[in-house]
Design a protein that fits this description.
Blueprint lengths: L1 H9 L4 H19 L12 H28 L5 H12 L8 H5 L3 H16 L3 H9 L1 E3 L5 E3 H5 L24 H13 L10 H20 L2 H9 L18 H12 L1 H9 L7 H18 L7 H13 L7 H10 L8 H23 L7 H17 L3
Antiparallel strand pairs: 1-2
Helix pairs in contact: 1-2, 1-3, 2-3, 3-6, 4-6, 6-7, 6-10, 10-12, 11-14, 12-14, 15-17, 16-18, 17-18
Length: 389
């Protein structure tokens, strides 16, 4: 199948056959993922989750390897095909069942993100990589987000670190999902990486570029400068981060490479760091600080949470609706590493703000709505999830 992919990709006149090949594989994969082996009901157990992850990877391997070849030797015309696959397997209809199994329905799209991203980086197609990561998509309940914000590590449903420690050998890892994906793609990239030398650097470089894209999309230059001055109570801009959060040696090697004028120019011309060399320097500094914070060398400030940033993460500031709160499900995962006392203090502040907003709503001209009541229930659920109740 991969050999056919390479043959069709080599000549433009075979683009229809290439589309047919990918379409056939996608339909086969869709039937598999909707089949009885991927039912959403069952009694929770580590064995069940390990089995489901293994089945998803087995089903996805062929498509992921095809996508990797497209990324390594494509010219950009294949981007729409890959995005269609990502939307097909990354945006799933809401259904009932075991929460962990529901979250794992997005895992095939996570595999596609890494398959295409690693291949694009291997080909040094930085512009196409950023285009792919920053494409706007519509997810459940018409919520709008980007590919990297929807699928990258802890931003993905079910991507929180504790959820992946059930896999053998990952129980004590700081970044179990990232470590697992590193092992998976070491063999899947064999179609275009002809030596294992440098694979780990490529993998962590790809993840760090995803982190950079995440920051660039959601954090202004002014916010990065405030983090530098300590005005926000922290010296980093939060984003999902993989193995480089603890692999300092590889991170330093990658950062030193980015800092070289020719590499920095290549990244900013591709519009990473908003196309601004100054932004790139600020972002690199903040990513280094975040890695230090994740690794325990910088303690998260409880004052940061008390000043309202946690409130912003848990309680929507504009209006009470389920769309806003649904988006916070991913952002709430940043609380995993926060000390319990700090977390409880921040949640108390969030609850007070919620009560104040509710009082204003209930005392207004409009009567309380079912949506408002559901939002309060959602808030309680998010808080309990953060505290692991």
């Amino acid at each position: 199948m991969v050999a056919s992919d390479k043959r069709f990709l080599a000549k433009p006149e075979f683009r229809i056959q290439l589309g047919d090949l990918i379409g056939e594989e996608a339909r086969k994969l869709e039937r598999t993922l909707n089949g009885p082996d991927f039912a959403l009901i069952g009694a929770f157990s580590n064995d069940l989750i390990m089995q489901r992850v293994a089945r998803a990877e087995s089903a996805m391997e062929s498509v992921a390897r095809i996508v990797g070849v497209l990324g390594r030797w494509g010219t950009g015309s294949e981007l729409r095909l890959v995005l269609d696959l990502r939307i097909e397997f990354g945006v799933r209809e809401s259904m009932g069942g075991l929460v962990t199994l529901i979250n794992l329905r997005t895992y095939p799209a996570v595999l596609l993100l890494y398959a295409y991203g690693l291949a694009l980086l291997a080909a040094r197609r930085y512009t196409d990589l950023l285009k792919f990561l920053s494409v706007t998509i519509v997810t459940e309940r018409d919520n709008t987000t980007t590919v990297v914000s929807h699928l990258f590590l802890t931003s993905c449903a079910g991507g929180e670190n504790n959820a992946w420690k059930f896999l053998p050998g990952l129980e004590k890892r700081k970044t179990p999902l990232s470590d697992h994906l590193h092992d998976v793609f070491q063999s899947w990239t064999g179609d275009y990486l002809f030596s294992s030398n440098g694979y780990t650097t490529l993998f962590e470089d790809c993840e760090l570029l995803c982190s950079l894209a995440y920051i660039s999309i959601g954090t202004s230059k002014e916010d990065l400068q405030q983090a530098t001055s300590g005005a926000t109570g922290r010296s980093f801009a939060w984003c999902p981060m993989g193995r480089v959060s603890w692999d300092g040696q590889t991170r330093r090697r990658i950062m030193e490479g980015w800092a070289r004028p020719e590499a920095a120019d290549e990244l900013t011309k591709a519009d990473f760091a908003r196309g601004q060399p100054e932004y790139l320097k600020l972002a690199m500094s903040r990513l280094n600080n975040l890695a230090g914070a994740s690794n325990g060398s910088v303690r998260t400030s409880s004052a940061f949470f008390r000043r309202g940033s946690l409130t912003m993460a848990v309680v929507p500031t504009s209006d009470w609706n389920l769309t806003n709160l649904n988006d916070t499900d991913r952002r709430i995962r940043l609380l995993e590493e926060v000390p319990a006392d700090d977390l409880i203090s921040g949640l108390t502040t969030a609850a007070k703000k919620a009560a104040g907003q509710a009082k204003q709503t209930l005392s207004g001209s409009e009567p309380p709505t079912q949506k408002l009541c559901l939002s309060f229930g959602r808030l309680i659920a998010v808080c309990c999830q953060a505290l692991h109740f």
